[in-house]
Specification:
Two copies of one chain form a homodimer. Chain A is α/β, with parallel strands linked by helices and 421 residues long. Chain A has helices at 36-39, 63-71, 114-117, 119-123, 142-149, 179-186, 190-199, 207-210, 251-254, 263-279, 292-295, 298-310, 320-328, 340-345, 359-367, 388-396, 408-413; strands at residues 55-56, 132-139, 166-173, 177-178, 216-218, 224-230, 242-248, 283-289, 350-354, 371-375. The first copy, chain A, has a seven-stranded mixed β-sheet, with helices on both faces. In chain A, helix 12 (298-310) crosses helix 13. In chain A, 58% of the residues are buried. Chains A and B meet through strand 1, helix 2, strand 2, helix 5 and strand 3 of A and strand 1, helix 2, strand 2, helix 5 and strand 3 of B.
């Protein structure tokens, strides 16, 4: 426990706040300004309501656990983070892309640098928290040790160490949504977006509608993790090659190795390509996004698995997307339109090897102004047996492939396991 | 897209709802009732506000993406899930524990069975969604193939197939919080809990304070996934052995194999124990909980890594917990008090092999009335080099061990890597 003074809580509960002409105004945020002081800090503190200049709270959905900690008396509501020694282990940016209010709308490019750019505000008592943290790690995946043993990856003592340990730089990123930019990206009006975010979540954050003066929202959703292989400076060096995989979370495959999809095998293949590209003097980037089950969640995902495997004719590629649409109303909810933001945070303008077959990801990235030179499909021998239904269905729907795209008849012949096998 | 009629939206925005004596009352929920009709369905629909009897919306934090889908016109706000063929692939329960309002407070035990127990309400037009989905899968982790190759696991053709494929039953579970029970579990008043959940999240869901008649909350946080090895019926058979590991998400290790902690190695060891126990005629259960970085989130986790590795004297076991406390105000925010709920949903009353050294998990489980016969520590040869700081610090703080517990002097000598190594 900290030694901070306990602040007595007000007796009345304020149901929502409203902009007022009285009292101190919160520090304004001018999204896209290049001078971080002019841009203004993101202040989501809960210890001083008058300082807040955003809707929502920090740590994504973990803010709910924080509330439990305060409720149960384990955490003082006015705890302020001691950020000693937490500064980024590697420097990322600033890049030109940070200063374009349309290029990045779903994260705060200055999120890792708050200790460096806002010391004056912190000295004035403002509680400014990093929304990005950058550290270093050694990672080891059994498949990569195998790649070393089989000679596909070479030990070099700096990036690939004995036993297949990889030295990486990694960044965790919390979502910070600039609502006018998000609305523009989704081609809706800001007020429509705010209203839907409020109403279609069951009434979450009335400030979405009562605080039109607050343009930034910290949504309670998962963020992103970036793994960088090789020298981060090579990412933005036009003379050096860059490999990128943008990977959407799939717990069942990424952790447990379920054979119904290609997620982990493709992730591992992406890391291998990243390491090879780094060893050629370039860099590799894996972006891991918390969007389980195409951002529909794992309950919906498992419901769809059952529906796929029990439908008349069994699980098959020609009916792959239909089952998700029946349950969820859409085939996909990942909003790849927001995904390129993290690439722009890294300052990426060209991807030499894009380790993904997704046309949605490819199109979102190229539309955002990043060039993609080569697309690398998953090698056939990495596709688990039961995952052929998915991969053939996706190829027929527009996924990148150098091979054959099946017709309706061919798709109907690609079948997966039933639930009793 | 569905063919449903588009319902025109009201022009005015309702900032929060209040209980009223006028109009139709929502179906009441009597938590802990054994008859599911008397208990009442959980209705978190957004297409008919008058039907709602809970606070919040379905799919945990993915409700936010759903709102984006509606805002951008890709999903009709009145879409109703077609649940054909989605019923559980294995039957779980009902168990006696389901009918004790204090035993389970953070999930809906009937969550997987809504199609079976509430058809009458569904026929009346109520939109009732499963909060639990149960399916089957084949999984394969490279380490387990190695266990087969080395003879620690035997192929049996049913549970362990050629190549080390494991046949599992798995369940995804969304959080459903019964607020009076949650308050009791955390030893606070319900009104204090509601107020903290509202205020300490930055004003999320005013219904937490304006709807005291709604006792159930669907919080926007991650849920749990249960992996069952062997016959699910063996889980509750007192004559058969049961192995359990309760695992809290750690993306850096579980997916990427970071060597700073023991998460993935211990998870794999847990799965091995589950398979062995199932092959002895019993069953094994892995519970995977979405509580990244001790429910502090990954940004905080990486900030703490930096602080640990840069502190005076370097990363060392005697200062392991202090750094988290400096940044987060607490050492841990996982609230293990809620964790046993999933074990009670499975009907577990005795765990023969508990694959965990956590005293917090052990104590929460035994306090909830489940016996633990044997505790299985992680084998020393599975502890990555840099993870010794963590494991020795935890052992000194009360983690279960059959070996030596280091004193302050000994702890100070256990050191990890710096950020430049």
């Amino acid at each position: 426990m900290t030694a901070d003074k306990i602040v007595p809580r007000a007796k009345h509960i304020v149901l929502t706040s409203h902009p007022t002409r009285f009292g101190p105004k919160p520090i304004p945020i001018h999204w896209g300004e290049s001078d971080p002081i002019k841009r203004g800090p993101i202040i989501g503190t809960l210890s001083n309501a008058a300082h807040r200049n955003v809707i929502g709270s920090h740590s994504g959905s973990y803010g709910v656990y924080r509330a439990l900690a305060v409720a149960s008396g384990r955490l003082q509501s006015n705890h302020r983070a001691d950020l000693t020694n937490t500064a980024p282990a590697e420097r990322i940016g600033p890049h030109l892309s940070w200063f374009d209010p349309d290029k990045i709308v779903s994260l705060d490019p200055f999120g890792a640098l708050v200790g460096e750019v806002y010391p004056s505000y912190q000295e004035q008592g403002y509680d400014i928290r990093p929304t990005i943290a950058i550290t270093k790690a050694h990672i080891n995946m059994p498949e990569l040790a195998d790649a070393v043993a089989k000679g596909r990856l070479q030990l070099d003592g700096t990036l690939v160490k004995a036993g297949g340990d990889l030295v990486v730089t990694k960044a965790a990123i919390e979502p910070v949504w600039y609502l006018p930019g998000l609305a523009k990206r989704l081609q809706v009006s800001e007020s429509e977006l705010r209203r839907a975010l409020f109403e279609q979540t069951g009434g979450m954050f009335p400030e979405l509608v009562t605080r039109p003066d607050f343009h930034v929202f910290l949504p309670p959703i998962g963020g992103a993790t970036v793994y960088i292989f090789g020298d981060p400076a090579a990412i933005t060096d036009p003379t050096k090659p860059l490999a990128v995989r943008v990977h959407d979370e799939c717990n069942g495959s990424d952790v447990f190795g379920s054979d119904i999809c290609t997620c982990r095998p493709y992730l591992v293949h992406g890391i291998e390509a990243c390491v090879q590209t780094a060893q050629e003097g370039g860099a590799g980037v894996i972006v891991y996004l918390r969007k389980e089950g195409r951002a529909l969640g794992e309950v919906t995902k498992f419901l769809v698995y059952n529906a796929r495997k029990r439908q008349e004719g069994g699980d098959r590629a020609d009916a792959y997307f239909t089952r998700t649409e029946c349950v969820a109303g859409v085939q996909d909810m990942r909003f790849q339109e927001l995904m390129p933001d993290v690439l722009h945070w890294l300052g990426i303008t060209r991807i030499d090897r894009f380790i993904s077959m997704s046309n949605m990801k490819h199109d979102a990235i190229t539309r955002s102004g990043i060039e993609i030179m080569e697309r690398v499909p998953i090698p056939d021998d990495l596709i688990p047996m039961d995952a052929k239904v998915e991969i053939e269905a996706k190829k027929a729907a527009g996924y990148y492939t150098e091979g054959e795209v099946l017709t309706e008849t061919g798709l109907a012949e690609i079948k997966g396991r039933s639930l009793v096998e």
